[in-house]
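debug: dumping io for the single-chain case to check the tokenizer round-trip. Nothing else runs in this session.
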Amino acid sequence: MATAKKGKAKRGNHDRTGEMCRTRKQIEHAFAGSLGNVTTICDRLKVSRQTFYDWKKKHKWITELLEAEVEKTFDWVENKMLSKIEDGDTTMMIFFAK
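debug: decoded output
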């Protein structure tokens, strides 16, 4: 007969108290190159969206990481658009002007 270990029982990515069982470094790594896509981040961390949003609500630095990744994505898109405009892409000029 197996005996239960004493201490915090872990279920998935949370212990019984709902605390994260991921290091900050693991979470930061999951954000890298995600373009701020929550599904991608959750897949990399192997957690549900609900778990991610619980962590985000509890830990301000996760919100800040997400905002920074989204900002990088907007910068990347803007650079691509400006590059097309510089190449004389009339459609992109019209799109950008609206």
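debug: round-trip ok. The two ends are 70 Å apart (CA to CA).
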